[in-house]
Amino acid sequence: MATRVRWLGHSCLLVESGGQNALIDPFLTGNPKAASGPDDLPADAILVSHGHDDHVGDTLAIARRTGAPVVTNFELGQWFKSQGLEGVEGMQHGGGLQVTPSFHVRLTPAIHGSTLPGGGYGGNPCGFLVTCGDGTRIYDAADTALFGDMQLLGEAGIDLAMLPIGDYFTMGPDDSIRAINFIRPRFVMPIHYDTFPPIEQDVRAWAARVKAETSAEPVVLEPGGWFAIP
Ligand code: NI
Ligand code: MN
Fold it and tell me: What residues are neighbours of ligand 2 (ion), with CB under 5 Å?
């Protein structure tokens, strides 16, 4: 079966490949756009991009229920360990790990903040380059501004990129178009928009611009929707 991705609202994504599930930034409780609660999602790995509440979300509860390893930066990893989680992979940017047979994960740079839940230094925020067992490559930029080294990430050959378009806390639509032209993915999915008033966007207008101004195909889902990567 093809690798497929489910958007659960905001930046929460479920990647299903080879019968395994990687859950990214599982902010469900308190997320007005969440398509699922935290109690019924599968996870063989949980990827957390930075320490803000709208990304850490329900990670502790889901990790305790599933026993899935949490993959994140070193400092946030130390915090997860302090909460009693085992199997935490506290990595750093540029580093990669075969987390499960279906998911190799590399931490990529992101320009953003990363306070720990409850305050404290949360290390540097990251994105994720996920290479699936079937060779599918997925890049989740997570919360970030545009940066020029996205061109280097594009050299890997990206099948699907997830990019924030909400503006205010991350890049907005204009810079997302520039990012797509740096990364050159086959498909691009918008995230981190419409959850709260400061990040409301016209996603149809964004999709029209992607078609007109880039070589990528936009993938706009309703929360809960799936996209199978062809
Ligand atoms: Ni953030
Ligand atoms: Mn965020």
Answer: 54, 143
Beta-carbon count within 10 A of 64 CB: 13
Q: How far is the CA of 1 from the centre of ligand 1 (A)?
A: 33
Residue 149 CB coordination number (10 Å) = 10
Per-residue model confidence (pLDDT) at position 118: 86
- Radius of gyration, alpha carbons of the chain: 16
For residue 162, CA distances in Å to 67, 190, 227 come to: 26, 6, 12
Give me the pLDDT at residue 97, please: 98
Whether the per-residue pLDDT at 172 is higher than 90: the answer is yes
Ligand 2 center from residue 151 Cα (angstroms): 23
Query: How many A from CA of 56 to the centre of ligand 2?
Result: 10
Report the distance separating Cα 52 and Cα 169, nearest Å.
11
Residue 169 C-alpha to ligand 2 middle, in angstroms? 7
Write out pLDDT tens, residues 125-169.
999 999 999 999 999 999 999 999 999 999 989 999 999 999 999
pLDDT for the residue 56: 98
Cα(87) to centroid(ligand 2), Å: 25
Q: How far apart are CA 137 and CA 128, in angstroms?
A: 10
pTM here?
Answer: 0.98
The Å distance, Cα 134 to ligand 1 centre, comes to 31
